[in-house]
Specification:
D-Maltodextrin-Binding Protein, domain 2, alpha+beta, 288 residues, 4-stranded antiparallel β-sheet, single chain, 2 domains
Length: 288
């Protein structure tokens, strides 16, 4: 697992560990190997040969890691075997209240009219918030300028202070600020409204047909893992993820449980990689 204790991927891994151990009849140990946005752990998983190592990884580790950083020593599509998406969440297009005085369509019109006078914040170059906003800009003609911060808490502070006008935020961070009146929610990036924030419209409702982008956490194994073991792991994970207890825990942490086949995850990896790689290339995005 590529992030430290208390992170969302760490939480997901620990929710799964106990029921997975019971189902497999052997201990399951959560090992945190943080660094390089989770790519250190993904590299360890890719090169593992013990047939017992499973990675809990995020979007970027399984999609555009190699596109953003050609020097990393694993290739997500060649060296990792997708097992299942565990959970997903949309991003919330959030805005400072003073610039969000209309509905979603009106807000997008105002953002286009503002050109480069508006700015958006992210937790850094190459994050899903950054790439998602660049994808949104490409689809809408918005010209907002990117301002990277150390993390989303700093982005929220800057939005509240008027230094930024918009950002894409996880629902768990955006909703309390919206309820407090410190931010306005324009819409979510999922294909339809999310059960996590059911009152927020999807951006597709605002006319952005086909626009879909989610945060997801998945299980993956080394590509060398024998197919029968991979099938068994997928079956066990799907059963665990479908359990009401696990679904409730994930929901309370700001995620919707999924649990899909390895083949479906592979399709998602390829689709997301293609969409985000195109944005990276067209906008000339590079890690600094």
């Amino acid at each position: 697992m590529g992030f430290g204790g208390g992170s969302s991927p760490d939480f997901v891994a620990r929710v799964l560990a106990e029921p997975l151990a019971k189902a497999l009849g052997q201990p399951v140990i959560v090992e945190n190997r943080p660094g390089a946005s989770g790519n250190i752990a993904a590299d360890i998983v890719a090169k593992s040969s013990d047939r017992h190592t499973v990675g809990i990884l995020i979007n970027g580790n399984m999609t555009i890691a190699k596109v953003l950083n050609p020097s990393i020593s694993y290739d997500p599509q060649k060296d990792l075997m997708p097992l299942s998406i565990i959970c997903t969440a949309p991003l919330v297009l959030a805005a400072a209240p003073e610039v969000a005085k209309t509905d979603a369509r009106g807000f997008l019109d105002a953002a286009r009219a503002a050109g480069n006078k508006w700015s958006y914040g992210t937790p850094g170059i190459g994050t899903i918030g950054h790439l998602g906003m660049e994808l949104l800009k490409a689809r809408t003609g918005i010209g907002a300028v990117h301002v990277p911060y150390q993390g989303n808490p700093q982005v929220i502070t800057a939005l509240g202070g008027g230094q930024l006008q918009l950002a894409l935020l996880p629902p768990g961070l955006a909703e309390p600020q919206v309820k407090a009146g410190k931010l306005r929610a324009i819409g979510v990036t999922s294909a339809r409204r999310s059960a996590l924030v059911p009152d927020y419209p999807s951006l597709q409702e605002a006319g952005l047909k086909g626009f879909e982008l989610e945060i997801w956490t998945a299980a993956a194994a080394p590509a060398s893992l024998p197919a029968p073991i991979a099938r068994r792991l997928n079956e066990v994970l799907a059963e665990i993820i479908r359990s009401p207890e696990v679904q409730q825990k994930l929901f309370q942490h700001g995620y919707e449980a999924v649990g899909i086949s390895g083949e479906a995850l592979l399709h998602r990896v390829k689709a997301d990689t293609a969409a985000l790689a195109q944005i990276i290339a067209s906008q000339g995005i590079k890690l600094e």
